[in-house]
Specification:
By secondary structure, the chain is α/β, with parallel strands linked by helices. The protein is 39% helix and 21% strand. The chain has two domains: 1-116 and 261-362, 3-Layer(aba) Sandwich (Isopropylmalate Dehydrogenase); 123-260, Isopropylmalate Dehydrogenase. It contains twelve helices and 14 strands. The radius of gyration is 20 Å and the shape is globular. The structure holds 3-isopropylmalic acid and magnesium ion. Magnesium ion (MG) binds next to helix 9.
Amino acid sequence: MNYHIAVIPGDGIGPEIVREACKVMDRAGQVFGHQFTYTEVLMGGCSIDAHGVPLTEEALETARKSDSVLLGAVGGNVGNSRWYDVAPNLRPEAGLLAMRKGLNLFANIRPAYLYPELADACPLKREVAGDGFDMVIMRELTGGLYFGKRHTEEVDGVLTAVDTLTYNENEIRRIAVKAFDTAMKRRKKVISVDKANVLDSSRLWRKVVEEVAKDYPEVSLSHMLVDNCAMQLVMNPGQFDVILTENMFGDILSDEASMITGSIGMLSSASMNEGKFGLYEPSHGSAPDIAGKDLANPIATILSSAMMLRYSFDLEKEADAVENAVKQVLAEGYRTADIMVGDGLKEVGCTQMGTLIADRIR
Ligand code: IPM
Ligand code: MG
């Protein structure tokens, strides 16, 4: 099969990590007899430099027409870059939000698990990390505070900013369905995270999630307040299977969940529409401070490409092969700088890490 992939290298370390992910996909293509064709798309700061906007209509169209999208990272140092001296809707991140909304990518799937090989890099005490953990955060991605009406105005001489958090029952239902479907393929446990003791949107969230749960009698559902969840993640991460939550809570909790795996450089993500179309990107950002130095960890992006093979193309054994190659390279002791914790390890750069992983696909 031939698959057409829109590739968005983006800013900072984006181009280097995406290059390694494509290297690994090409190797998987060679071994299993597929062809991946890449069309490069500008988004973020690089698009601002070229076109004055973070995402052009043509770029969005190219992504829409592709079979799936692979993204590195967008953005630079906030407050320290020409890209941020403009209206909020012209900043690099606005391109990403427009892409998510424009392609209806409402389901953001962020797995977080602790590789036994990286146990030393986990910042939690051994007794807390226990036998490790393996969770998926199902984050709603096209609603809530990110897309509500906002403005800043002077009220009686006082500058006042307003952001609004809106969810309707349909938006909640479709992400809840994704969470329960995911749980059915895992340990059948959904923890829905909200702030129902304060927010109306959370109370509606709870009600709709409970309705959806009725269709999944095998899945156990419980609710957790977001502040408690933040605490539980570092107290007892092993209790989580699928975490279902709204956009902003999911943004925050997924950074926390990724950090306890040892490095944010390990965490993949998929943003899906109602069907099989998705945008795949690492959970981390563009890390401008280390860009172009061959120091970045490409594993999150490589694992994101494995998610693409699995979720968009149904290429299960190919995805397994990529994930196993990552495990093997870690087991052999190769590490990028961010995960160099422990004895007897071999430090490698971004390019070599990509090559090592590609070489182990068979
Ligand atoms: C993420 C990022 C984005 C978000 C930013 C870059 C807008 O933090 O994907 O988690 O907040 O969604
Ligand atoms: Mg984030």
